[in-house]
Amino acid sequence: QIPATSGVTGHNHRRRRRRLATKRPPWRPPPPPCLPPLHPPVPEQPSPSAAPAQLLPRPRPPPPSPPPLAHPSP
To answer: Tens of pLDDT along the chain (74 residues)?
Structure first.
């Protein structure tokens, strides 16, 4: 004979879990896409990489193109 205070095992535990599952809020579909975004982008804002780019030294020129491969061209 198992006492009711045996923790997980016991008929009372299963009843409580089933009732908890019904307390979950109903699932609501996502809002329609026609609504405007909550955080609209700020127009006419200089990109953060624009100012620091001028302080950095000029980028190195690309390396010379490698020699053409041996595969014949059509």
So the answer is: 556 565 556 555 555 555 555 666 667 777 666 656 666 666 665 555 555 555 556 667 777 776 666 666 56
Between CA 18 and CA 23 the distance in angstroms is 9
Q: What is the DSSP letter of 19?
A: H
pTM, 2 dp: 0.13
- Separation between Cα atoms, residue 7 and residue 13, nearest integer Å: 8
3-state helix, strand, coil in the chain (%, to 5): 25, 0, 75
Q: How many CB atoms lie within 10 A of CB 13?
A: 13
